[in-house]
Specification:
It contains nine helices and 13 strands. By secondary structure, it is an alpha+beta fold.
Length: 280
């Protein structure tokens, strides 16, 4: 959903960012899985830009500047926008998908199309590739036509039919959790721009009021939600730690999440957290 032709992605720089060395890999399922997992380990989901009251720039050059060269992460429109450009540059047949987030939402609450994911066509079959759904993003491609449980390095997933939509669910310690609904329509680049602007500017938006960062590691899935740092390992009970001080929060963002954020942005994030009511 980005104009990848306007700015050819610097593939060597991206591959170095995610820790892949050597010749450019061929467009195969094995390569897709390798890229998806490497991206999830190297590049954290984060919404610092939104908390600093900026609207992320989705232009390919801006995504490359921020994520590849700037040592930052981003949310779905940024992460999957970059991944879309990378996959196309490598010769993959890939298209954008848009979804309605259902995680933590009551069944009777409607949600907008504010999530971007990707579908990759390989040997006549489409696979979901998503590096931008925070702590529930699959770290391996998922077969879109399958309704069976599908294993990934960081937990199992499945697709459930819901009318004309397809619901992605993840299995956690608490059981199956809804992720998002994928619609049958083909989104256009303007749809990503509208969704991105809405998510970044709506005063009641979840990502405008809360700090969310997540990165996959060899030890499991590490997620920071406001002041709580959680490590999830498969179906085991998660381990949680409350970060009471500014120094602990800064370390979680800069070390645990590997984000190269400025002092000014860190101050903006901490101000929002300090303004939140104390946890009950």
């Amino acid at each position: 959903m980005t104009d990848t032709a306007a700015h050819p992605i610097d593939l060597p720089a991206y591959l170095a960012r995610v820790g892949i060395e050597g010749e450019l890999p061929p467009p195969t399922l094995e390569t897709l899985a390798r890229l998806q997992r490497a991206h999830a380990h190297a590049i954290a989901f984060e919404n610092v830009e939104v908390l600093a009251r900026r609207v992320p720039d989705l232009a390919p050059a801006a995504l490359e500047r921020k994520i590849v060269r700037g040592g930052r992460g981003g949310y779905c429109f940024e992460q999957n926008g970059l991944f879309l450009a990378v996959l196309r540059a490598l010769g993959f047949d890939v298209r954008a998908l848009e979804g309605r987030v259902r995680t933590g939402v009551a069944a009777d609450v409607e949600t907008g199309r504010t999530h971007m994911a990707l579908a990759v066509l390989l040997d006549g079959e489409e696979w979901l590739a998503d590096v931008g759904f925070g702590g529930l993003a699959p770290t391996a491609p998922l077969r879109l036509a399958s309704r069976a449980e599908q294993a990934t390095p960081h937990g199992a997933y499945r697709f459930v039919e819901s009318g004309l939509d397809l619901l992605l669910q993840a299995r956690t310690f608490d059981g199956w959790v809804d992720g998002y609904l994928l619609g049958p329509d083909q989104p256009r680049p303007i749809d990503a721009q509208i969704g991105n602007w809405f998510v970044a500017t709506w005063p009641q938006g979840f990502l405008r009021q809360n700090l969310v960062a997540s990165r996959s590691t060899a030890a499991g899935r590490l997620t920071l939600f406001n002041r709580e740092l959680t490590l999830r390992q498969g179906d085991d009970a998660p381990t949680k730690r409350l970060l009471a001080s500014h120094d602990e929060l800064a370390q979680a963002l800069r070390v645990d999440m590997g984000l190269r954020i400025t002092d000014a942005d860190l101050v903006a994030v901490l101000a929002i957290l300090d303004a939140q009511p104390p946890a009950p």
